[in-house]
C-alpha cells in the first residue's frame, strides 16, 4: 500500500489530486450530509463536519452532471462525499456486512474522495421520488430492482447525467456514483472543515 497523502488547501499535488468543496464550482448543488446527523441507519452522528469535499477532478465531473440536470430543471443533493477511514470504521462496527458497508480501507472510493452518494431534486430543493431512501439495505436499493415507471424515469435522469459526466454507479446502491478515474487516485486524508466557503 502506498503512502497516505495528506492534502490541505495549500498542499495540492496537481489540480486533480487536491480536494475541493463541491459547492466551490457550483453553489446550486445541495449538501445534506446524512452522517453529520443522527438521520442515518446507525442513529448516531458519524462525523462532525458539514462540508462535502472530493478530489478536484471528481468535483469538476460532478459540476458537469449538475449542469446537465439544471438544463432539465433539476438539482443534485449530496448525502455523502469524502468519508474518513474513522467514519467508515464506525459504520462497519454497526453493520459488519460488506454487501452493504465496506470494511475500512484507505483505498476505498469514499475514503479516497472519488465517490458521491446523491439524489435528484426539483429546483426548489424538493427531493424527487426514487426507488428507496438512502442506506436502504434491501433489494430496493439495487440498480437491478424493478422500479415503478415514475421511479425508472427519475432514476434514468440521474443515471444518464452522472454517466455522461464520467461516473459509474455501484450495483447495490442506486445513489452511489464513483469517478471512472478512481483507480488513478491513491489514498489521501483531508479535513473538510478546511474547505468551508467564506
From TrEMBL:
Its EC number is 3.4.13.22. One of its GO terms (molecular function) is metallopeptidase activity. It comes from the Bacteria. SUPFAM superfamilies: Hedgehog/DD-peptidase. The keyword Cell cycle does not apply. GO terms for biological process: cell wall organization; proteolysis. It catalyses: D-alanyl-D-alanine + H2O = 2 D-alanine. Keywords: Cell wall biogenesis/degradation, Dipeptidase, Hydrolase, Metal-binding, Metalloprotease, Protease, Zinc. The record marks 83 as: Transition state stabilizer. Pfam families: Peptidase_M15 (PF01427). The keyword Zinc applies. CDD domains: D-Ala-D-Ala_dipeptidase_Aad. The active site is at residue 173. InterPro entries: A_A_dipeptidase, Zn_M74/Hedgehog-like. Catalyzes hydrolysis of the D-alanyl-D-alanine dipeptide. HAMAP family: A_A_dipeptidase (MF_01924). Belongs to the peptidase M15D family. This is D-alanyl-D-alanine dipeptidase. The lineage of its organism: Bacteria, Bacillati, Bacillota, Bacilli, Lactobacillales.
Amino acid at each position: 500500500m502506498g503512502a497516505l497523502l495528506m492534502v490541505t488547501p495549500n498542499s495540492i499535488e496537481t489540480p486533480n489530486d487536491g480536494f475541493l468543496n463541491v459547492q466551490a464550482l457550483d453553489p446550486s448543488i445541495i449538501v445534506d450530509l446524512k452522517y453529520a446527523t443522527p438521520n442515518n441507519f446507525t442513529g448516531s452522528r458519524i462525523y462532525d463536519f458539514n462540508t462535502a469535499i472530493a478530489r478536484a477532478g471528481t468535483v469538476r465531473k460532478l459540476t458537469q452532471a449538475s449542469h446537465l440536470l439544471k438544463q432539465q430543471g433539476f438539482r443534485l443533493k449530496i448525502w455523502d462525499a469524502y468519508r474518513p477511514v474513522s467514519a467508515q470504521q464506525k459504520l462497519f462496527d454497526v453493520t459488519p456486512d460488506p454487501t452493504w458497508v465496506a470494511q475500512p480501507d484507505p483505498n476505498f472510493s469514499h475514503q479516497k474522495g472519488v465517490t458521491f452518494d446523491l439524489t435528484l431534486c426539483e429546483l426548489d430543493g424538493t427531493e424527487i421520488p426514487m426507488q428507496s431512501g438512502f442506506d436502504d439495505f434491501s433489494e430496493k436499493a439495487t440498480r437491478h430492482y424493478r422500479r415503478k415507471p415514475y421511479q425508472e424515469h427519475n432514476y434514468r435522469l440521474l443515471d444518464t447525467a452522472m454517466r455522461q459526466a464520467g461516473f459509474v454507479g455501484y450495483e447495490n446502491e442506486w445513489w452511489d456514483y464513483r469517478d471512472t478515474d478512481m483507480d488513478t487516485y491513491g489514498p489521501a486524508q483531508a479535513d473538510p472543515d478546511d474547505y468551508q466557503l467564506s
